[in-house]
What we know:
The chain contains 4 helices and 19 strands. With 437 residues, it is mainly beta. The protein has 5 domains: 71 residues, Ubiquitin-like (UB roll) (Roll), CATH 3.10.20; 89 residues, SH3 type barrels (Roll), CATH 2.30.30; 71 residues, SH3 type barrels, CATH 2.30.30.30; 68 residues, Herpes Virus-1 (2-Layer Sandwich); 40 residues, no CATH class. The strands form 5 sheets. Strands 6, 7, 8, 9, 10 and 11 form a 6-stranded antiparallel sheet that branches. Strands 2-1-5-3-4 form a 5-stranded mixed sheet, covered by helices on one side. Strands 13-14-15-16 form a 4-stranded antiparallel sheet, with no helix packed on it. The two termini are 21 Å apart. Pfam families: PHD, TTD, ubiquitin. This is RING-type E3 ubiquitin transferase.
Amino acid sequence: MYIQVRTVDTKNKITLDLSKTAKVSELKKLIESHFNIQPDKQRLFFRGKQLEDEYTLFDYNINVGDVVQIMEKASVIVTENQEKADSKAGPSNEISTAVKSPFDDFLGEAVESSDYFKVGEYVDGRDSTYGAWFEGQIHKIYKDKNYEENKETFKSDEISGWPHDGYFYEVAFIEEGDISCTIKVRLLDVRPRAQEKIPFEDIKVGDKVLANYNIEDPTKRGYWYDCVVSKVKSGQRKSLTAEVFIGPSTSLKDCKILFTDEVMKFGETKPLMDRKPNTDVEPTARQTEIPMKCDHCNNNERRKCRECGCHVCGLKTDESKQIMCDECDYAYHIWCLTPPLEKIPDVDDWYCHECKNDENEIVSAGGKLKESKKKAKMASKQNNSTRDWGKGMACVGRTKVCTIVPFDHFGPIPGVEVGTLWKFRIQASEAGVHRPH
């Protein structure tokens, strides 16, 4: 019997001829002669399982022509300094919300304020990942170590017109009163918090405003972006078209702004001495996301719905007695389950009966295979003979199944001419003739 062994990157592939009763350890020795990888550094995978040395190819149902993937274990070299550092470092329970910034290598000393902002001030910060503005608060201000050397190379933002001022601002984004993450930005990506809404009657073509827009689905609420108004249509049906800036320079033209009554005037960056001393008071948060709405019942409490209510009975009552599946995200009353539960289980992850995998069938990497009663009764498992039956074509499995005709078909088969010959009987089964099962 022959099988194929292929590297994970699919660049190298070999064909090996060996017995179906051969152990995995024998397969690894053959692979070593071709790929020059020591057996103890080989990891072999087939159908999501890691092949272990004490089992045979037959135990893993590897048939003729099947592909086994090989991965080489990485060689980890631990130095004395690393061992000392690992022994000194204790477990930490703190969860870091800081995002790795490209400016970390240029941070100088921390200061309490710059010419434009101070620590603790509520601002809008622009996240380079989304290109949108988010509400936040300045936690720290750092000096730029290389500012004097590269002072002339910094460019201004197309909207604000502000270049780099020689400081980096660590802004903590706030969601529902909690810090979601912190980023480090320059002056062009931070400005005072936008608070003033602009009446629709006062919006004119060419105005630079802050508006809510969803790039992926313009019919829904999204993030807040800088916009330049290009068209204003008043009357019974108000409409607003603008050029939406995603980041400092990238823009989308002819974007229809959905929430015309929430267009805001973004905060103007001014020196601290020229601003009013009221920036320490947290302003009202802007609405970024709308409450979830069920597309099936439109949040009608009197209507049964298996999407937003119990997935079994459809009722929306007793929310405290409902448990949600972590896979399909459907809710279930604890008494609607099969079998019913007496209380909400105290577990981190819970799965319904349709999504839950049988733990007895899961084989972890390096674990032993589950014993099969069917295989234990097979003649191949009874060691009554010393003959190696796994090398020939008599016991190989089918690599394809004929689906042109049903398995109990009697009569001619399309594509199989009268007088066709096959070398092995398994080929006749694959063609749809004399199928044993």
